[in-house]
Specification:
Elements: E1 5-8, E2 11-14, H1 25-29, E3 32-40, E4 43-44, H2 47-61, H3 69-82, E5 93-100, E6 118-125, H4 136-139, E7 141-144, H5 166-176, E8 183-188, E9 194-197, E10 201-206, E11 209-212, H6 222-235, E12 239-241, H7 246-250, E13 254-259, E14 263-270, E15 273-274, H8 282-295, H9 299-309
Parallel strand pairs: 7-8, 7-14, 11-12
Antiparallel strand pairs: 1-2, 1-6, 3-4, 3-5, 5-6, 8-9, 10-11, 10-13, 13-14, 14-15
Helix pairs in contact: 6-8
Length: about 325
């Protein structure tokens, strides 16, 4: 199988050679915005929406755009095609787009280093991101509320998808100290309202209505929008945004997380207190089924099949959703 390549400011380089300078602002300040997408049947899902959010993030942090949105989309598609020989036919494409501000001014005279923003696009198998998640469709996630709070919009707007994410990782590290292997962090905002996970959006269901936290102090996910704006209307399920607390989660009928790689996962307890029956709920199940129908992929079966074929994540190593498993 061929080796993967990475789009690097207009060129393709071997993945192992894709490196940012130690003098890049991304390393110094976490000064980078990014997006991650996925495919269904090798067709990108909501790529345009992801790119629109990327360009909004660039605008808000004032990273100059060196490409138009259309040019960025074309570069993503070129990178996917360039990596076709390196992925298995049953893989889905996981695309990572990073845009950094580039070298800090005091280092721009360093010989051999390119000044200006960096645009980096990588493609790898989606199966990497969803390792071990298959069983969660059956047993659900135990949401754990850590002491780490979400960063509120009045300090750093979480709607900007950026690489300054240490607060997410600290939440993951704290939650990793709890016993069990279904624990995912669920952050509160400084006012004590439920905000989001460390790589996902959170919903509860009460009396047949899907409820999302208000969009002030969260990253407004593309998957979240798809559930609220498309899936719920298709199923005639009411959906609202409003503030709610841990009490409301514990007394809800059901709950779930949304995120690009896994789409929807049920949440069946919070701090080990059962939500509803303690099993995936009927609204969550209907949403998963409708999403699968819309994209022509049995999402649950696909992830379970990959899990059956793949080794578990390395013990003790950070992952996007948990720091480690006990």
């Amino acid at each position: 199988m061929a080796d993967r390549v990475v789009y690097w400011n207009g060129d393709f380089v071997p993945e192992a050679e894709a490196r940012l300078s130690i003098y890049d602002s991304a390393l110094m300040f976490g000064d980078m915005v990014f997006e991650m997408t996925r495919s269904f049947k090798r067709k990108q899902f909501k790529l345009r929406e992801h790119l629109q959010r990327l360009y909004a993030s660039m605008k808000l942090v004032r990273i100059p755009a060196t490409m138009t949105l259309d040019q960025m989309e074309e570069a993503v598609l070129r990178t996917i095609e360039a990596n076709r020989p390196a992925l298995r036919p049953d893989d889905e494409d996981r695309v990572l787009i990073d845009v950094s501000r580039g070298l800090l001014g005091i280092y721009q005279g360093v010989v051999g280093l390119r000044a200006g923003p960096n645009v980096v696009i990588a493609v790898f198998p989606l199966r990497w991101t969803v390792q071990g998640m298959g069983r969660l469709f059956d047993v659900g996630i135990n949401a754990v509320v850590p002491s780490q709070r979400a960063i509120p919009a009045y300090l750093m707007d979480p709607k900007i998808k950026n690489r300054s994410r240490l607060f997410y990782q600290m939440a993951n590290i704290e939650v990793s100290e709890y016993e069990g292997d279904t624990n995912w962090a669920l952050l509160l905002d400084p006012d004590g309202f439920v905000a989001e996970g460390t790589g996902d959006n959170f919903f509860i269901v009460k009396n047949g209505t899907v409820i999302s936290p208000e969009g002030r102090n969260i990253l407004r996910g593309v998957s979240r929008a798809y559930v609220m704006d498309e899936l719920c209307p298709q199923l005639r399920v009411p959906v609202v945004e409003r503030n709610f607390e841990v009490y409301d989660v514990a007394t809800a009928d059901e709950a779930f997380m949304t995120g690009t790689p896994f789409s929807i996962l049920p949440v069946t307890s919070i701090n080990r207190v059962a939500i509803g029956s303690g099993a995936p709920g009927p609204v969550t199940t209907r949403l998963i089924a409708k999403w699968s129908e819309n994209v022509g992929v049995d999402m649950v079966a696909q992830i379970k099949q990959w899990n059956a074929e793949s080794a578990a994540p390395a013990a003790g190593a950070p992952t996007p959703y948990a720091f480690r498993s006990k």
